[in-house]
UniProtKB/TrEMBL annotation:
This is CSD domain-containing protein. Residues 96-122 are annotated as: Disordered. The lineage of its organism: Bacteria, Pseudomonadati, Verrucomicrobiota, Opitutia, Opitutales.
Amino acid sequence: MPAATPVEADESEARGVFARLGPKGSFMGIRLSPETVLQFYFNLDATVHAEVLKEEEMETRSTTVTVPLGELLIEAVYHGEDLEQKIAFSRVSWTDEKLRRRPIQSPEPTSTAAPRRRSRLS
């Protein structure tokens, strides 16, 4: 399902989606609040990149986890638990990153007039 078409899901459904994801570009996101998303990206080595994205601030806090730790993060979301505390026993390290906003690019101006000829200077 495209990321642009999110669906409501309970914990069991979210776990089911997570279980069906594979390592070739798979992605899953769980909205934690109107401006915060927990995202999972599956890596080719069967680990999972877990990332909390704060959309308004354009900041992320991320780590690499195993599939069982990813399942614990999903459990934490649905039980109102702190994500980092839920998997603290695993001693994973978290990385903070400030994302850069991409400038909005205007489309190239178009013209229906014939191009002007230019003289070649020597």
